[in-house]
Amino acid sequence: MRIGILGGTGDLGKGLAQRLSLHHEVMIGSREETKARSLADSYLQEVSSALGKKGEIKGFENGQVIRASDVIIIALPYNTVNAFLTQMQANFRKDQLVISPIVPMEKGQTGFFYNPYIIDGKEMSAAEVVSRALPNVESIASAFHTVPAARLADLSYKLDFDVLIASDSGDGWTRTASIVSDIEGLRPYYAGKLYLSRYLEPLTPLMLNVAINNRLKQPSLKIIAERKG
Ligand SMILES: NC(=O)c1ccc[n+]([C@@H]2O[C@H](COP(=O)([O-])OP(=O)(O)OC[C@H]3O[C@@H](n4cnc5c(N)ncnc54)[C@H](OP(=O)(O)O)[C@@H]3O)[C@@H](O)[C@H]2O)c1
């Protein structure tokens, strides 16, 4: 499958690209094609020297990535997303899966806080903003919010995290779950419909505050429960 990562030159994009490149053809997007190309090469070199395996990562300008991908992960800063998608809307297709890991969050004097979008006077999660901006895309999912970029990009680190996924479409959930499972040590859980992103996205500032206040680093999530028979 061809997975495109918009803003794949950034912190989250790097580790996602490297780990997914072991199973998929990955395209990383940037506003500058030359930057994306040179980072794609260096990501691949790191995969090869850390894991002794060959991945596939190529770098392009974001618009090219959208047009050529089956799955698109929007790894962009939250405050750029609405304008970016409005400008790029025509590049998306109905049959693509779009995944939002976006966390609208700021750091204040007392710690991190969730900063939802206000659109037409209504609070919205990032995933709902993505869905609103891409009305023709049938499968939109929300995932990866609680996976720290630094852990993903440390290829010697053995991940052992759960990933909560929200989506309105069955196809969005199953395809996203399959991509999450392709990263060794990540387990997908279905949280529910896309509106539940309003609860998933604030988990990140919550966990970061817990980490700061208890001298922890790189917090992530694991659900402790027994499976029903
Ligand atoms: N970092 C984490 O641990 C983490 C974990 C879970 C979820 N997330 C979420 O994942 C998303 C990406 O996080 P990140 O930490 O990877 O972000 P980041 O490193 O700050 O930025 C990612 C990329 O966005 C592009 N970018 C920056 N400003 C832009 C603009 N005005 N227009 C278009 N592109 C722009 C840049 O690429 P170019 O300069 O190459 O264009 C940059 O490399 C965020 O929404 C974040 O909430 C992050």
Would you kindly provide a written description of the structure presented here, covering whatever features stand out?
There is one protein chain. This protein has 229 residues and is of the alpha/beta class. It has a single domain (2-213), classed as NAD(P)-binding Rossmann-like Domain (Rossmann fold). 38% of the residues lie in helices and 25% in strands. It has nine helices and twelve strands. Strands 3-2-1-4-5-10-11-12 form an eight-stranded mixed beta sheet, with helices on both faces. Helix 1 crosses helix 2 (33-51). It is globular. Bound molecules: NADP nicotinamide-adenine-dinucleotide phosphate. NADP nicotinamide-adenine-dinucleotide phosphate (NAP) binds at residues 7, 9-13, 30-32, 35, 75-78, 80, 84, 101-103, 144-145, 147-149.
Brief summary:
This protein has 229 residues and is an alpha/beta fold. The protein has helices at residues 11-20, 33-51, 62-68, 78-88, 126-133, 149-153, 170-182, 197-200, 203-213; strands at 2-6, 25-30, 56-61, 71-74, 97-100, 105-108, 111-114, 117-119, 122-124, 139-142, 161-167, 186-192.
